[in-house]
C-alpha cells in the first residue's frame, strides 16, 4: 500500500478516535472528521463508505494489533506469561481499548475479541487437555467469558491493580481449569 494512502487512513482513524472520545459516535459527522483532519470530505469518502465503515475498520485494526502482539509473543497457552503479555499491551494502549470497550455501540469489538480468544482457547484445550470433559464448547465459553470479563473490569475501572496483580488474580481464578491443560 502506498505510504501516502496509509498515512491518510491513519490520520482519519486517529481523528475519528479523538472525536469519539470528545463527542461520542452518534454526534460525529464526516464533516467533523474532515475539518479536524484538515482534509477534504471527499478524501474521507475515498477511504471509507461512511462513519459506520470507519468504525468497523477502526475496530478491526485494533483487534488485529492486539492479535499481532499476542502472536508475536512466543507463548499462546493459558499461562501467566501469555496473560501478562496481553495485559501489558492493553496497559500501553489503555486509552484506545477503554474507548472501544466502553461504548455499547461497539459490541462488534467485544464480539470479535471473543471469537478470537475462543478460537485460541479451543485450540489449547484440544491440544493439551488430559481430560475429555474439557474439550467442549461449554468449557471454551466459560474460560473465554471469564477472561474477557476480567479484561473489561480491569480496563473499565482504569486498571485498579497493576499487570502482575491482575495476571496473578486471573491465574488464581483459572487454576482449577488450567491444571488440566499441561503441556505434553
Q: Strand count, sense and closure of the main sheet?
A: none
Query: Helix coverage percent of residues?
Result: over 70%
Assembly type of the chains comes to single chain
Distance between the termini: 42 Å
Instruction: Indicate how many domains the architecture comprises.
Output: 2
Gyration radius (Cα, Å) is 19 Å
Mean pLDDT rating: 84
Number of helices: 9
User: By helix and strand content, what is the structural category?
Assistant: mainly alpha
Number of strands: 0
* Share of β-strand residues: under 5%
Uncertain segments? none
Overall 3D shape? elongated
Name the helix and strand elements from N-terminus to C-terminus, one letter apiece: HHHHHHHHH
Structural overview:
This protein has helices at 3-23, 30-37, 41-47, 51-72, 80-92, 94-102, 107-128, 137-156, 163-178. With 184 residues, the protein is mostly helical. The chain folds into two domains: 1-48, Homeodomain-like (Arc Repressor Mutant, subunit A); 54-178. Helix 1 (3-23) packs across helix 2 (30-37) and helix 4 runs parallel beside helix 7 (107-128). The termini are far apart.
Outline of the structure:
With 184 residues, the protein is mainly alpha-helical.
What structural keywords apply?
single chain, 184 residues, mainly alpha, Arc Repressor Mutant, subunit A, 2 domains, 75% helix, 0% strand, elongated
Topology, pairings included?
Layout (H helix, E strand, L loop, with lengths): L2 H21 L6 H8 L3 H7 L3 H22 L7 H13 L1 H9 L4 H22 L8 H20 L6 H16 L6
Helix pairs in contact: 1-2, 2-3, 4-7, 5-9, 7-8, 8-9
Amino acid at each position: 500500500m502506498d505510504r501516502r494512502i496509509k498515512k491518510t487512513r491513519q490520520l482519519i482513524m486517529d481523528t475519528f478516535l479523538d472525536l469519539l472520545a470528545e463527542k461520542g459516535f452518534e454526534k460525529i459527522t464526516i464533516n467533523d472528521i474532515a475539518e479536524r483532519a484538515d482534509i477534504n470530505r471527499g478524501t474521507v469518502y475515498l477511504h471509507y463508505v461512511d462513519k459506520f465503515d470507519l468504525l468497523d475498520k477502526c475496530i478491526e485494526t485494533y483487534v488485529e494489533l492486539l492479535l499481532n502482539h499476542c502472536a508475536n509473543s512466543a507463548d499462546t497457552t493459558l499461562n501467566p506469561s501469555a496473560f501478562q503479555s496481553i495485559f501489558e499491551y492493553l496497559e500501553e494502549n489503555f486509552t484506545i481499548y477503554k474507548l472501544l470497550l466502553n461504548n455499547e455501540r461497539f459490541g462488534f469489538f467485544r464480539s470479535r475479541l471473543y471469537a478470537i480468544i475462543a478460537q485460541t482457547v479451543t485450540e489449547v484445550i484440544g491440544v493439551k487437555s488430559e481430560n475429555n470433559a474439557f474439550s467442549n464448547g461449554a468449557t471454551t465459553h466459560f474460560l473465554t467469558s471469564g477472561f474477557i470479563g476480567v479484561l473489561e473490569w480491569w480496563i473499565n475501572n482504569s486498571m485498579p491493580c497493576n499487570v502482575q496483580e491482575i495476571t496473578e488474580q486471573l491465574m488464581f481464578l483459572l487454576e482449577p481449569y488450567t491444571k488440566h491443560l499441561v503441556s505434553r
